[in-house]
Each structure stands twice: as C-alpha cells, then as structure tokens.
Specification:
The complex is a heterodimer of chains A (182) and B (291). By secondary structure, chain A is an all-alpha fold. Helix content of chain A is 57%, strand content 0%. Chain A has 11 helices and no strands. Chain B has 291 residues and is α/β, with parallel strands linked by helices. Classes of the chains: A mainly alpha (182), B alpha/beta (291).
Chain lengths: 182, 291
C-alpha cells in the first residue's frame, strides 16, 4: 500500500481527533493490550492499536474507511485495560463521528452504519425507541425482509414485540436537541 | 426516600419481564419508585457511536427532569441506560462549557448532583443486603446460578466506580442471598456483542455462544443478568446459537430481579418468567424440589 501524506493535512487531522478525544495520540506506546483483549478483533481489518498509530500518522482515508471503526461495539475492555489510560474506545467514537460528518459511507460495514442512522431517526421521531419500527425499517433498508422473522411469532406470543410504539409528549424538545447537537 | 425510576425503552418492550419483576420485588421490599415523567431514550450505544454531544444531551434531559422532581437518587435497571446517564452526569460535572451549552438547549437547569444507580448498586447500596435477606422466604437450594455482568455495569471503572471491572462479585453475592449457589466461570465480563445484534448477528452469536457454552460447561442451571441487551442476546438468540454450533445449551436466562423475586416466594407468573424465549420450567422444578 502506497500512502503519501501531506504534513499539514496530517497535523490538521491529528489535532482534530485529539481535540475531540481530549487525549494525545502519542500517549499510546503500542503495547497491543487493547487489541489482545478486543472481543471482535477476529473480524477487524486493522487492530485497535494499528488504528491509533495510523491516525497519528495522518492516514485519514484508511482509518475512516476501515471496517474496524464500525465493528467496535464499545465494550470498553480496551480503555479499561490500557496501561496508559488511553481512550481507545473513545477514538473509535471520534473516528466514526468524523466519518459520518464527512459523509463517508462504509462499504464493508454498511449495515452497522445504517443501523445507527435508523436508530437515531427513531429517537428523533418518537423520543423513544419503537423496537418493531426499528427492525422493520432496518430490514427494509437492508433488503433483508425476512431477517429474524422466524423469531417474530414467538416474540409476539411472549409479549416481547410491541407493534405500537409510544411517543413522548415533548417531542419539540427532542427536535431542539437534535437541531442543536446533530 | 424519594426514588426516581428511568425504565428505558427495552423495559417497555422486549424486556418487559425486567420491569414487571422489578416492581413485584419492590412491593415485597416495601420500596416505591417513581417513573421520571416524559422521559426520552438515552441514545443507548448508538448516539455516542456517531455524535458525542447528542449522546450527552439526550440523557441530560432525563437527568434535568429528575433533578426538578427532587428525587434522592435514580435507578436505571438497563445497564446501557445507567451507563449513559452516569457518563452524561460525569461529563457535565467536569466539562463546564458543554454543561452550559446543554442547559441552554434544554432550557432547564441541571447541577449534576443526583446519583444514578444501576440495578446492582441499587440492590446493594439502596435496598441493602440485610433488607433483601430478611424477605427471603424460599431458599433456592440446589440451584446453580452463573452471574453474567457483561460490559456496561462495570466499565469504564473510572465512571462506574462499582465492583471490580475484571472479577466482579456483587451479583454473585445477591445470588448467594437467595440460597442459590453462585457458579464461577471465565467470561463474566466478556461482551455479548450488544448493539450489533441486528447488524452483525454472526459476530454476536460467536461472542454470546462463547459465554453460554462456558457457563454450561461449569455446570450452571441458569444464568442471571442485570441488562436487557445481555438478556436479549443470551435468551432470544440462544436457539439460533444452538443450531449454528449444533450443540444444545438449554440455559434459562433470568433477570436478577426475577431470581430475588422467586426467593421472596413470588409466583413465576407474577414475575413474567414465562415471557422468556428459553423456558425456565426445569429451574422452577428444581427450586420446588429443594423446598
């Protein structure tokens, strides 16, 4: 892989990440403890410590398009075990947020990204999550119309699937929160 | 004592058993809780994944309403909700600029004072082990129970400040109070795959399967949890995991409130134990045989 990095761009990217992270990328000394304990490392294209180093080197395109940032489930094992107290879980949040702001759509992990988008839309329109609506919209958008459908009859019978969601009263406030912070 | 209650979306939906059993258990304990009026979703694992400020602002609205109601503390039974509420409280205590921005948007004051308790903290620190023990009518002898903590009850330790992040014991202590035998095993705090249940089911089944087979190999009759997302992955996906790995598991997954409720002599029906996907019949039979 040939990567040419412009020093100004590298600095901009690093300082942008660090200001969102409230941590210095150089704090990581690459011991690999985070990657050893990561429960989803087997699916990742780059390990968490590689992501940290590549971010520090300014390899924005590579990290923002990586599978890793979308596979991370925020279990916080990495940050908890980091001997330097580095915000490893935090950097995944920051990189996902930058990717979304830049309009980057993950190719390999499109469905994970889409799930997050639909989840937030659900909160925006109801103030709470309607699980039925969430699954229905997700299945429609991903064209997995029958995904998990074999679970549905039993879940309905058990009372686990509520067809009608609840909307909160003060939806205007939720709209305002989204307007101010989204 | 005025206790606020943040149910979160799952307890009103797919994990309704958790709310039903919590309320039944509290009746016996003689404790009342009041649902935060017009609460909204905390943003769960999604908001912080793609928008930091939104992930603080959404739970902040609930915290501000709770503060206005004047509760002494709040209980949030969902591990993810309690984690997000605690994280928001922590950030708003330490980041004055963000607090001002959020307070302005909410048009409500918020001082970040009131404590948020997850289910285990609530049971141990608010209800208290002595009070729980005094209400146990039915010793759940013969029953071997594995406590599954998952991620968000104990991590990150600097914000959760509760139990040990690698080898927690509080849920095992609660299990012991009911007369059941706590089972030790390796994956108490290993992740179940959580939020990616819909978008990466194969990964989630690999992680959840690892936890379930380990619990089974250590001879447990049942698993006990204090998180609706853990419950959903361990219970709802269990049949699929059995099919995928072609090996029977057959482990009923109970909420900690249900196990305590059973030891109080509350009927399984009243605790909504029949709401689970994996039937708990064998466990209930074993409890009755031990009486």
């Amino acid at each position: 892989m040939k990567t040419t990095i412009n020093e100004h761009e590298r600095r901009d990217f690093v300082s942008g990440v660090e200001s969102m992270l409230h941590d210095k990328l150089s704090n990581c000394y690459q011991c690999g403890k985070c990657s050893a304990g990561c429960p989803v490392n087997f699916e990742m294209d780059y390990t968490p410590n590689q992501i940290i180093k590549m971010t520090e080197l300014g390899m924005a395109d590579t990290v923002l398009n990586s599978k890793t940032i979308w596979l991370c489930v925020s279990c916080i094992t990495c940050s908890t075990r980091c001997p330097k107290g580095f915000e490893v879980t935090g950097i995944m949040d920051v990189l996902r947020e930058i990717a979304v702001k830049k309009g980057i759509n993950s190719k390999a992990e499109r469905e994970v990204q889409l799930f997050h988008k639909i989840f937030l839309e659900n909160i925006k329109s109801n103030g709470r999550i309607s699980e039925f609506e969430l699954v229905r919209k997700y299945n429609l958008k991903t064209k997995h119309l029958f995904k998990d459908m074999f679970l549905a009859p039993k879940m309905l019978e058990k009372g686990k699937l509520k067809i009608h969601g609840v909307k909160i009263s003060n939806l205007n406030r939720i709209a305002k929160i989204f307007k101010d912070f989204e | 004592m005025k206790l606020g209650y943040y149910p979160g979306c799952s307890l009103k939906g797919s994990s309704f058993e958790y709310e039903v059993s919590l309320l039944e258990m509290l009746k016996v304990l003689g404790m009342g809780i009041k649902e935060i009026p017009d609460w909204n979703c905390c943003g769960a694992s999604t908001a912080h994944s793609i928008n930091h400020n939104l992930a603080i602002a959404l739970p902040a609205r609930n915290l501000a309403i709770a503060e206005k109601e004047g509760y002494d503390s709040i209980v949030a039974p969902c591990a993810a909700c309690s984690n997000r509420l605690k994280t928001a409280r922590h950030e708003l205590k330490t980041d004055e600029a963000l607090r001002k921005k959020i307070v302005n948007s909410l048009e409500m004051p918020y001082g970040a004072g009131m404590e948020v308790n997850n289910m285990l903290e609530f049971l141990i620190n608010v209800a208290g082990k002595d009070r729980i023990k005094s209400k146990v009518k039915k010793q759940l002898k013969n029953l071997k129970v594995a406590s599954y903590y998952g991620c968000l009850l104990v991590r990150p330790p600097k914000i959760m400040r509760f139990d040990d992040s690698e080898e927690p014991v509080t849920m095992d202590e609660l299990v012991a109070l009911t007369g059941a035998q706590p089972v030790d095993y390796s994956y108490k705090t290993e992740c179940c795959g959580a939020i990616n249940s819909l978008s990466k089911p194969d990964v989630v089944m690999a992680l959840t399967g690892k936890v379930l087979y380990d619990i089974k190999n250590h001879g447990a009759d049942a698993v006990v949890v204090a998180c609706p997302l853990c419950h959903s992955n361990l219970d709802v996906r269990q049949r699929e995991i059995e099919r995928k790995y072609a090996e029977k598991i057959g482990l009923p997954v109970l909420f900690i409130t249900e196990l305590i409720g059973l030891s109080f002599g509350i009927s399984p029906k009243a605790l909504a134990i029949d709401g689970h996907m994996v039937a708990a019949d064998k466990v209930l039979k074993k409890i009755n045989e031990g009486q």
